[in-house]
Predict the structure of Nucleoside diphosphate kinase.
Amino acid sequence: MAIERTLSIIKPDAVAKNVIGQIYARFEGAGLKVIAAKMAHLSEREAGEFYAVHKERPFFKDLVSFMTSGPVMIQCLEGEGAIAKNRELMGATDPKKADKGTIRADFAESIDANAVHGSDAAETAAVEIAFFFPGMNVYSR
Ligand code: RTP
Ligand code: MG
């Protein structure tokens, strides 16, 4: 399988719960490397732009309001099949439906406060990585 890059966000609920390290350990345990990272408190504009694909969805307002409610930890992950592997580690969007042992099953409270974001395809990964890490401040090894 090819080496890929994906964009991951530890959302405000998980940052507030102080589980950044526990989530990073899961990435590392699955062979995913953190090759760029930054903490940020997103503005409404940034969160709205990032989730622009969901603009017409009924949950958009709540999503932006949640994503701007506190700091987030944003990282680019690299590894074999990184996009699907990260989605697998995350579990289903609704933590009640997420498989046992996934990040969302273990750390998320609700479909809104669901601990993590992960790119869902190669095209979105490229756009999302460029959105948060413009230029090449990425440390591959
Ligand atoms: P994400 O983009 O955050 O990684 O999550 P996802 O791919 O699993 O889910 P997506 O369909 O892209 O939705 C983005 C976020 O919007 C919230 N959502 N709420 N109330 C609802 O029906 C609903 N559906 C989605 C979730 O917080 C989801 O992570
Ligand atoms: Mg998504």
In short: The domain at 3-135 is CATH 3.30.70.141 (Alpha-Beta Plaits). The pocket of ribavirin triphosphate (ligand 1) is lined by residues 54, 59, 63, 93, 111-112, 114, 117-118, 120 (CB under 6 Å). The chain has one domain: 3-135.
